[in-house]
Amino acid sequence: MITVVLLGRLADLGGAPTLSLPAPLDWAGLQAALPPALAEAVKNSRNRIAVNGVLLAEKTDLHAGDGAEIALLPPVSGG
C-alpha cells in the first residue's frame, strides 16, 4: 500500500488527511485512484507532489512502490 498525505485544501477535497492506495502508482494511476474533485485539483500546476520527502520536478516523474508516501502539497499562502 501507498500512503497519500493530503495537506490544506486538498485534504478537504479528499475527505481525509490521508488515503491508502494500492501500489504501485504512477501519475496516471494516482489521478485515476483519487476522488474526482481531488484528481482535478492535483492537475493544477500550483499543486506539487513529493515522494518519500523528495519534491518532484514534474508530476509525470511519479513512480511509487509499496510502502511509499506521496504528499500532495497545495501552494503555500502567507500573511
Automatic annotation (TrEMBL):
Matching SUPFAM superfamilies: MoaD/ThiS
Annotated signal sequence range: none
InterPro entries recorded: Beta-grasp_dom_sf, Mopterin_synth/thiamin_S_b, ThiS/MoaD-like
Protein's recorded name: MoaD/ThiS family protein
Organism: Erythrobacter fulvus
